[in-house]
Amino acid sequence: MGLKIETLLVRSGLQKDPTTGSISTPIYQSATFSHPELGKSTGFDYSRTANPTRSALEEAIAKLEGGHRGFAFSSGMAAITSILFLFKPGDHLIVSDDLYGGTYRLLEEVFSHYGISASYIDTSSSDAISEAITSSSKGIFIETPTNPLMKVTDLEQTLRIANKNGLISIVDNTFMTPYLQQPISFGADIVMHSATKYLGGHNDAVAGLVVTASQELSEKMAKIHNGAGAILGPQDSWLILRGLKTLAIRLERQQENTQKIAEWLSEHPSIEQVYYPGLKDHPQYEISSRQASGYGAMLSFTVKNTKLVPMILKNLQVISFAESLGGVESLITYPVTQTHADIPAEIRESRGITDKLLRLSVGIENADDLIDDLRTVLEVPANIEAVRT
Ligand SMILES: *Cc1c(COP(=O)(O)O)cnc(C)c1O
């Protein structure tokens, strides 16, 4: 029976214990499992290799992304590190230029020491991708929409180029989740998530997920997962499973709120620009509409006057000034000093991550309260006066 995604989400990890019929997956807080006799196993031997709670999460994400096999890691960065272990010294990667700062740092400060190089390209341009491919290019790592400028890559076209050139294609699907976008259906080889964000959804657990599309890649990833051992523990696996169940309704509300806030900010005289793929004047609005079933709940904006930034961050009452995203609570971040601080200033500026840019992760609160919160900090007379002087 082909169940729809809302149903699949709710059924994540459902009734995994036939002995009790427990609806919620039990937390198997065990490092090891006894064997019935020599040469026999229950399927579980040692929890680095497999743990029933983690396996329930891994099966759920593989199904949701339409892939072959899922793997749960201790963080999104552990997931990306493990994916990068697929490459060898001398290999070159094509990487979206506007991406999560931690991914950039990992490539530049860790993997560069192992002879793996990367070119940072505007992957929303397929010509730029084709031009960057060399004889040593072995992989492409795409974030779409990108973080924080919300640039959208055409998945179908890009994955076709990747395929034709024999590149392993990796999509960081953290911002969209499988509820809105399924990169494997466009030909991606690997999809990864920081499950810390929307999949967990409550800002209470750090986790990473990987889904491989083919048996060959699944076997390679399984060796790395068990060999390097950056696995997710049973408690956190349970929290992510619990988060998945409400993903659809959370995202529906979050997107609805985001659309309202994006439209309101676009009209505001103190705001210079709003970056949100759900706005009709977003350069890739058409592509987004084609390849995803929604525009997500992340938006960025620039203020006209930099002096507004500290006032906004200090005075917001409902929206918290904190790193991370995707949870039920709205959070605002300042990429220049937070998520993207490790990208050298001139590179950062040239990519549009300036000191006027703020990133908003919209939660499930009442949209009017969020807009009132922003209105208050943008329009209190003291703030307006401080900006003028
Ligand atoms: C947060 C994030 C990561 C890193 O994940 P962690 O769970 O924090 O290790 C990677 N990619 C994107 C897009 C992210 O937002």
UniProtKB/TrEMBL annotation:
Its cofactor is pyridoxal 5'-phosphate. Belongs to the trans-sulfuration enzymes family. Keywords: Pyridoxal phosphate, Transferase. Its EC number is 2.5.1.48. InterPro entries: Cys/Met-Metab_PyrdxlP-dep_enz (IPR000277), Cys_met_metab_PP (IPR054542), PyrdxlP-dep_Trfase (IPR015424), PyrdxlP-dep_Trfase_major (IPR015421), PyrdxlP-dep_Trfase_small (IPR015422). It holds the Pfam family Cys_Met_Meta_PP. PANTHER family: CYSTATHIONINE GAMMA-SYNTHASE, TRANS-SULFURATION ENZYME FAMILY MEMBER. GO terms for molecular function: cystathionine gamma-synthase activity. This is Cystathionine gamma-synthase. Transmembrane segments: none annotated. It comes from Peribacillus deserti.
